[in-house]
TrEMBL record:
<dbReference type="InterPro" id="IPR027417">
    <property type="entry name" value="P-loop_NTPase"/>
</dbReference>
<dbReference type="InterPro" id="IPR002586">
    <property type="entry name" value="CobQ/CobB/MinD/ParA_Nub-bd_dom"/>
</dbReference>
<dbReference type="InterPro" id="IPR050678">
    <property type="entry name" value="DNA_Partitioning_ATPase"/>
</dbReference>
<feature type="domain" description="CobQ/CobB/MinD/ParA nucleotide binding">
    <location>
        <begin position="4"/>
        <end position="182"/>
    </location>
</feature>
<protein>
    <recommendedName>
        <fullName>CobQ/CobB/MinD/ParA nucleotide binding domain-containing protein</fullName>
    </recommendedName>
</protein>
<dbReference type="Pfam" id="PF01656">
    <property type="entry name" value="CbiA"/>
</dbReference>
Length: 212
């Protein structure tokens, strides 16, 4: 089983979008997947309540912050959505559970600076340095061909962390989320460009590039 934590202490960078669509991908593959939400607002779990019952199931995983435990035995993947301002005990719990951490980041200098300390801390974590936890960055609401994307890539490269991919700014995510859906729950022709952008992210979460 692999636990994937989606984290960035800065708000509004797309954590829930990444978490829900990642869970939707694993569900579409017929895997037993659970989605946890460490945010008090419980946005991802609220999204789950909107999900049509006829779609591939995604289980709710309640993470008890007072007595954290591994997810149910037998799960193939678990995704943990985390809150803005993630630090202290919540961050420690998330890292204790994680096999992989995805950091969504918008390619503006303001977002980069606001996230820099968090990325530097992750890079220094003992479990990260020893390869027990893999870290990857996803550029959100960005065109990979722009100077902004190049700037983001240079910044993250300096921390020796991989940029897994870039997701464009599109209303597809907003419209689908309103109905408890993901990219993998609708006709491919409707979201073809978005599915293409997700391929390197999916490959990484499935183990591509994993350290020996």
């Amino acid at each position: 089983m692999t636990v994937i934590v989606v984290a960035n202490p800065k708000g509004g960078v797309g954590k829930s979008t990444l978490s829900t669509n990642l869970a939707g991908y694993f569900a579409s593959q017929g895997e037993w997947i659970a989605l946890a939400d460490m945010d008090k607002q419980q946005s991802s779990h609220a999204w789950l309540s909107l999900r049509p019952p006829a779609l591939p199931p995604i289980e709710t995983w309640e993470v008890d912050l007072e007595n954290p435990a591994k997810p149910p035995r037998g799960l193939e993947h678990a995704v943990i959505d985390t809150p803005a301002g993630l630090h202290g005990n919540r961050l420690n719990i998330a890292l204790d559970l994680a096999d992989k951490v995805i950091v969504p980041l918008q390619p503006s200098m303001f977002d980069i600076l606001a996230t820099q300390e968090f990325l530097e801390r992750l890079a220094k974590e003992k479990a990260v340095r020893k390869g027990a936890i893999e870290i990857g960055v996803v550029g959100m609401r960005v065109d990979a061909r722009t100077r902004s994307a190049e700037q983001l890539h240079r910044f993250v490269e300096g921390l020796k962390l991989p940029v897994l991919g870039y997701l464009r700014d599109t209303q597809n995510y907003v419209q689908l989320a309103a109905h408890g859906l993901t990219l993998w729950d609708v006709a491919k022709s409707r979201v073809e460009k978005d599915l293409e952008q997700w391929q390197p992210i999916i490959q990484w979460t499935n183990g591509a590039g994993k350290k020996a």
